Amino acid sequence: MESPEHISAIIVDDESHARQALKTLLNAHPNIQVLAECENGISAVKAVNDLNPQVMFLDINMPKLDGFDVLELLGDTAPLTVFITAHNDYAIQAFEKNAVDYLLKPVNKDRLLQSVERIAQRVAHETPAQYQAQQQSAAQQMNQPGAPIQRILVRDKGDVYVIATKDITAIEAADDYVVIHTPEASHIKQERLSKLEDQLDSQQFCRIHRSTLINLDFLQGIETEAKETRFAVMKSDNNNPKQYAISRSGYSKLIELL
């Protein structure tokens, strides 16, 4: 199969000089067409959705949304990804077999040539489904086990919401989705409640029912209506505090944490 004549790309980096330097180097490769430059992860997600690039040159260390957060939000819509980092640390080892390539800053033109050649080979010989599967695997490997997550990312059409876990009052299951509640709003995310439970701080979030996780920091009290009919009453800024049913096993877990 012949190499593609044109490969569409976006550059994602929070530093303008880094974006410009990489674009200048890429201009020496006529088969790479840079469609957009993104200064943060949110604009990167929007650019992928709007422009559908074939490759993304993605900085790892960025504020608010880092490169791994961007992959999480994109899921199976992520294009081929070349990671860019200033640090020769665990990211290189973790992505060595999954990403198309990784580049160390400052990017060397000869090293970039190798990366462009790899990109061309992948675009020519792999279907979109194949390289999307590669990116999903890469994103999963970069999700550090053990430490509780501090934020949850939600994509709603073209909008991206970053929800701090400390601001979540409760999370309810709805089939393969969850509804994440905060004092200000509710957001729907395609995720299993059990997976979020494993990722959240077990000392802060309690599974009080098979379909409900609550943040203990927002627990106002427990109401009992019958012998084993209990409800968790959550703090609210209005006069209508939200209540969630507590199962028998959920009550046992709740008492252990309180």
Automatic annotation (TrEMBL):
SMART domains attached to this UniProt entry: LytTR (SM00850), REC (SM00448)
UniProt keywords, alphabetically: Phosphoprotein, Two-component regulatory system
Domain HTH LytTR-type: 152-258
Domain Response regulatory: 8-120
Phosphoprotein is among the record's keywords: yes
Source domain of life: Bacteria
Pfam families on file: LytTR, Response_reg
Database matches in SUPFAM superfamilies: CheY-like
Residues carrying 4-aspartylphosphate: 59
GO molecular function, one term: phosphorelay response regulator activity
PANTHER family, per the entry: STAGE 0 SPORULATION PROTEIN A HOMOLOG, TRANSCRIPTIONAL REGULATOR-RELATED
Name the UniProt record assigns to this protein: Two-component system LytT family response regulator
Organism encoding this protein: Simiduia aestuariiviva
